[in-house]
Amino acid sequence: MTDQIVLAPPSAEWFRDARRARTLSLVTLVWLGAESVLGIAAGLGAHSVALIGWGASALVEAAASLIVVWRFTGTRTGSAYAEERARKAVAISFWILAPYLVLHVAYDLDAGHRAVPSVLGIVVTAASVVGMPFLGTAKRRLGVRLHSTATAGEGTQNLMCALLAAGVLAGLALNSVGWWWIDPTMAVLLAAVAAREGFRAWRGHSCCH
How would you label 36-68 residue by residue, b for 16+ Cβ within 10 Å and e otherwise? Predict the structure, then answer.
């Protein structure tokens, strides 16, 4: 089996969608790189493990973007074998993200860390809450049209990134009134979603979900 196996007679529209998927993944890759650097910097400045963890999780999510860029580059664009490999790689990235979130929450709770206000942290996470849903939704729609579970899975990770950012923002805002548990609760729930989506991606169901 080689990367030359073709999915189905790809039309000109299919190839346009493939280029869109690759472009969106490249944009996301740059976004997540900046998000990670700024999130970790904000977390270090505010002594917030929640922000540091969120910035670090962006690096894991960037792996899915790299996989989709690889998937739709060169002769792999029309390859069924490349899609299969990309699909399984995205599933693995979900499985890396899930235990990371749980272990991060466990560490925070054991150390007694709580999210603290940070202007930079608020700006970066708010940008993610606003922007990532657009990228995630667009990729999931492209995933359906391309029959690409890898693309749809990356879109799901973008939506999860926005939800994580919302959890961090909520933690920063509500910690002062004692609702510190919002952030870790959100992280644990998303870890469960990540594990489930990993299984769906591995079986090839995410593009239709």
Answer: bebbbbbbeebebbbbbbbbebbbbbbbbbbbb
**Is the model more confident about 107 or about 73?**
73
Alpha-carbon separation of residue 43 from 50, 65, 105, 110 (angstroms): 7, 24, 15, 18
Q: Which residues pair with 27 in a beta bridge?
A: none
Closest CA to 48 of 208, 169, 151, 145: 169
Taking the model in full, what pTM does it have?
0.79
Task: List the domains of the chain with CATH numbers.
Answer: 12-208 (1.20.1510)
Q: CB under 8 Å to 199, separation ≥6 — which residues?
A: 91
Sequence-distant (6+) residues with CB within 8 A of 109 are: 184
Q: What is the per-residue pLDDT for 5?
A: 45
